[in-house]
Amino acid sequence: MTNTHTMTLAQYLKGVAEKQFSPTEVTQAIQAEISKVNTDLNIYLTENEQAVQETEAGSAQPLAGAAIAVKDNISTKGMRTTASSTVLDTFVPPYDATIMTKLKAAGMSIIGKTNLDAWAHGSSTETSQYGRTLNPRNPEHLPGGSSGGSAAAVAADTCIAAIGTETAGSIRQPAAWCGVVGLKPSYGRVSRSGVIAMASSTDSPGPITKTVEDAAILLNYMAGHDKYDGTTSPQSVPDYTQALGKSIKGLKVGLLYQDIAGLEVVNPHIQAAAKVLEELGAVVEPVAAMDPHYAISVYTVVQRGEVSSNLARFDGIRYGNDRSFFGDEAKRRIMLGTYTLSKGYADQYYTTAQKVRTAFMQDFQKLFSNYDVLISATSPSFAKKIGVSENAAMFGELEDMLLEPSSITGLPGINVPCFHDTTTNLFIGLNIMAPMWREDQVITVADAYEKATSWNTWRKV
Amino acid sequence: MTTQITLQQVQHVAQLANIPISDIQAQNFVGAFEETLGVIENLKEVDTSKIEPTHQVTGLENVMREDVVDEQHMFSQAEALANAKRTSSGYFVVPRILDND
Predict the structure, then answer these.
(1) Sign of the alpha-carbon dihedral angle for A63, A69, A75, A80
(2) How much is the pTM?
């Protein structure tokens, strides 16, 4: 058995069950791979010295001690958690985030904590105060963000799978740029307790994986009501692996954003993906939706406001360093939020933004009365070159434009690779969205698409 | 028509948010503020006269819990203080905010 570190989660679980290899040897192979690439790519901020022990301890559980990369804004008991900001340079959480408790109970091993844009503010990892991560597919390019470290960890085969968080694009956009799968669950499907808060009304943790099947497996162990997060939904969680391998015959698919300027590079590939779905029996129609430029504005106002409030707790007294340690991006966002929430401006900006948010919800409601799922490009471009985000106050928002409508409305969505440029080794991603709580629908369509195409690099034979 | 921001406004907001910034940063933030406010200007174009604001998308309302002590979710004093820069006799040490002189 060679190259155990390149296995998908499903292959790993099968191999362990059939005793083809031991969980420990896989975790050790992954650690060896991290040693080889991490100095150059800067994926992991902290490696878990206990990873092998955790693998051994978890080997009889459902996740069989699988080595999982965890974004460094997710609290891990006893393990440094920085949110990629020097404010939290030496912070060691005294408790686990709920999703960590759940995944540990299912037998995962944390292989390490991955880099992100500081406080998850950005779409490049370039705002990380520990340096940018490079895209393993092509190191002259960025991995995207904010979960850029987690997406890169998957693309570089330095984990079996990874956990990220998305507020507006932070799972799907880096997944698109790194040529991997990223699933953003409905807001309220996965607990935020113990995740360092960014924008509390849109933050959604989710899996970043090699295949759609792996995302379905991991979501099974992440989803569900949590008494420590009052915004989690009490409704029951289906077995997401039941959504795999299903026919999409007769499914109605709305194709969005064909008339938005600036999508010339990606749109031919999205149209080709639509063709594939048609060949699989779906009915695909281009359909008009509310202009995503308004979603940028809603998100910008809401996010800055919630950031200014959430980051007020970092006073350097109970934990962490003082507020002079914030980087420029965090300072800009905190201050902008303070400004738009201040007396005289709150109505003009904040209340108006929340009304336009309602308009987006109504628009999606109308769209989903005619379509089962909606598709669009994930990002307007291939992974961009390093350095491109510097001093661009709105870089992330413009990059995430196509995802922001579904973020502010809480909808589930997934990125699957839908084109691979063999010259640059870079990818384009397809974004598939469904109504609230219908992650199963997203998984069914993504899985059918993935299996019908050869873009997924782990499925090539 | 972009909103004009002054250096004084940026410095005032920095003070409100308790964010220490240098003069050069404040200068740079004027431009960043104007750029961002320029982008969100388009909110005015949407007719919001007949719609209510959305603060929360799950539809849940007034989520309560039993008012009981949850010992599973408590820190010991040592755990609570473990990450603090300055502690004294089991307390956090906070900076002085009133000037006695």
Answers:
(1) positive
(2) 0.96
Flag if B46 and A393 touch (Cβ within 8 Å): no
The top-level CATH class assigned to A4-235+244-452 is: alpha beta
Bridge partners, A79 (sequence order): A76
Residue ranges per structural domain of chain B: 7-45
- Round to whole Å and give the CA distance between B42 and B52: 18
Rounded CA separation A119/A264 (Å):
32
Residue A232 Cα distances to A59, A98, A272, angstroms? 29, 12, 37
A319 touches chain B (CB under 8 A): yes
Nearest beta carbon to residue B39 from set A300, A318, A356: A300
**A223 vs B: CB within 8 A:** no
Per residue of chain A (461 residues), give pLDDT as tens: 457 899 999 999 999 999 999 999 999 999 999 999 999 999 999 999 999 999 999 999 999 999 999 999 999 999 999 999 999 999 999 999 999 999 999 999 999 999 999 999 999 999 999 999 999 999 999 999 999 999 999 999 999 999 999 999 999 999 999 999 999 999 999 999 999 999 999 999 999 999 999 999 999 999 999 999 999 999 999 999 999 999 999 999 999 999 998 899 999 999 999 999 999 999 999 999 999 999 999 999 999 999 999 999 999 999 999 999 999 999 999 999 999 998 888 888 999 999 999 999 999 999 999 999 999 999 999 999 998 877 676 777 778 899 999 999 999 999 999 999 999 999 999 999 999 999 999 999 999 999 999 999 998 64
Please state the ipTM of this predicted complex. Answer: 0.93
